[in-house]
Amino acid sequence: MKKLADIIRDLNQVQIHGDAQIMISGFCLDSRKVQKGNLFVAVRGSAQDGNVYIPSAIQSGAAAILCQQLPDRPEPAVTYITCDDLNGVLASMLNEWYGYPSSTVKLVGITGTNGKTTTATLLYQLFTQWGFKCGLISTVQYRVHLKVYDSSHTTPDIIRLYALLDEMVCEGCTYVFMEVSSHAVDQDRIRGLQYAGAVFTNITPDHMDYHGTFSKYIAAKKKFFDGLQEGAFALYNTDDPNGRIMVQNCKAAKYSYGVKNMADYKGKILDHNLFGLHLSINKAEVHTRLIGEFNAYNLVCVYAVAELLGHQQEEILIGLSTLQPVEGRFEWFRSPEKNVIAIVDYAHTPDALEKILTAIRKIQQKDQSLITVMGCGGNRDRRKRPVMGEIAVRMSDKVILTSDNPRDEDPEEIIKEIEAGVQEVHPSKHICITDRAQAIKTACMLANFSDIILVAGKGHEKYQEIKGVKYPFDDMEILKTILLN
Predict the structure, then answer these.
(1) What is the pTM (predicted TM-score) of this model?
(2) What CA–CA distance (Å, rounded) separates 117 from 302?
(3) Which ranges of 60-202 would DSSP assign to H, the alpha helix?
(4) Could you give the CA distance from residue 393 to residue 421 in angstroms, rounded to a whole number?
(5) Cα–Cα nearest to 185, from 211, 151, 149
(6) Most CB contacts within 10 A, which of 15, 59, 288, 382?
(7) What count of Cα atoms within 13 Å lies in the side-chain half-sphere of residue 448?
(8) What is the dihedral of CA 433, 437, 439, 444, to 10 degrees?
(9) Considering only CA atoms, which of 57, 97, 99 is closest in space to residue 79?
(10) Between 240 and 46, where is the model more confident?
């Protein structure tokens, strides 16, 4: 419990309507979860207006309301804090409440279309095995040292985020590695945080259903780097044409990494197969267990971040050699009887799908066929569906189009939109099976000795979302049940 006056003491841009000496028990964005004494934050979003839920929040026990405009009939027993910059005020209040948690740890944010999860998780692995207590905020899970929480969003809402960082500080964490989504930047979920460093992995068209245009998507990512302070580092992928754009006018110290172009941290693939990558990083060699050119970028990036955080080359290389692949990212096994290689990957964008298929093609033998099972999520950017269909059919020997997370859409209609790209390439190479479990089973039946099966799109997810309900579903578990029994 803290006094409201204490957490708004330095905020000159707010107006107080009511008693500022009341005690606050916490913050809440969801009126259904308000507890007695909470401060309810009435956010005007693109989908919902939090002001509509102020009466419900008060009925549930809210003691104070943070909003942009005073209601027509304010409740006399409740204190209202009004302001124009609601997100900025909320961030300041949360910092006062939790004692500026991001200044206590070394916080590194990773943004980009692909590679965020792998890079953040590998950094968490690396620094944890060095003996540091670390935090991880990712698409797959949130980790407070060894404590694991299910992930609700790539980057959680601002109240949850500050609470997580505070828990990490209390646990003794010294490093925190977090994914920073474009939605989070655009919605000010990371407002008020102090970053030791920021990473840009790459950018290709994605989330057009939210941002509208590719230029707005780029601008959302760049906003993250624009907010960095002097003393931080900004690391960007020099092989991505938008890498330099990200760090333009950035106050942080700028560094680059890459595999093809000149960079401060330069990687080179010396050899790669199903059992890993042999890399050169700044002319020093290392063998790793990760597979594919895209993972070469992730590993070089991890190396760069570790060195920028003060660690030495030999220590980092030894650490890289022991890192384990991330769940649902080129996760594979080989069946004992048919020698089939089964791969599960989260690839759910055109760029990610093309990269995973390219990686497989480079290790594929002449007598092996590649069977790809893929779909596209509902209530997401429809423009990428035919593009992903074209990529799958062009780069695979056989393709089974199926349901992903259809959400509120008809899965068969989604498949038809994917087929629009397939028909232009090689329509005879694909079949459609809406039931995802049946599609995976069919791929296993079609696979001959030593063939390769890729199940793409859901990766680490343990559910399938249909009409607002998440049903248990695990691509890897289904593959193992069929191929290992």
Answers:
(1) 0.90
(2) 12
(3) 86-98, 116-129, 158-171, 182-186
(4) 9
(5) 211
(6) 288
(7) 6
(8) -160
(9) 57
(10) 240
Average of pLDDT values for 28-33? 94
pLDDT tens digits for range 417-449: 999 988 766 778 999 999 999 999 999 999 999
- Paired tokens of 433: 């099976």
Name the more confident of 120 and 205.
Answer: 120
Quick one: which of 448, 192, 239, 234 has its CA closest to 337?
A: 448
pLDDT given at position 14: 94
Residue keyed to tokens 């003996």: 131
Tokens 């020997």 found at: 397
Kindly tell me the burial class for residue 158, based on how many C-beta atoms sit within 10 Å of its own C-beta (0-12, 13-18, 19 or more).
Answer: buried
**Helices H / strands E in the chain, number of each:** 16, 26
**Cα 169 to Cα 128: distance, rounded to the nearest angstrom:** 15
Q: What is the pLDDT of residues 197-233, one digit of tens each?
A: 999 999 986 665 666 788 898 998 999 999 999 999 9
**CA 474, CA 458: separation in Å to the nearest integer?**
8
C-alpha 388, offset from chain centre:
20
For strand 452-456 and strand 341-345, is the pairing parallel, antiparallel, or unpaired? Answer: parallel
Specify the pLDDT at position 422. 87
Contact 384, 404 (CB under 8 A): no
Q: Yes or no: say if 121 and 330 are a contact pair by the CB < 8 Å rule.
A: no
Over its C-alpha atoms, the chain yields an Rg (Å, rounded) of 24
Residues 6 or more apart whose CB falls under 8 angstroms from that of 62 comprise 28, 34, 38, 39, 40, 78
The pLDDT of residue 49: 82
Alpha helices in 230-339 (DSSP H): 243-246, 293-308, 313-322
The residue with greater pLDDT, 48 or 324, is 324
**What 3-state DSSP class applies to 437?**
helix
- From residue 356, alpha-carbon distances to 179, 192, 308 in Å are 21, 36, 29
- Give the mean pLDDT of the chain: 94
As a whole number of angstroms, the longest Cα–Cα distance in the chain is 77
At residue 45, does pLDDT exceed 80?
no
CA distance 260 to 113: 19
Q: How far apart are CA 56 and CA 266, in angstroms?
A: 56
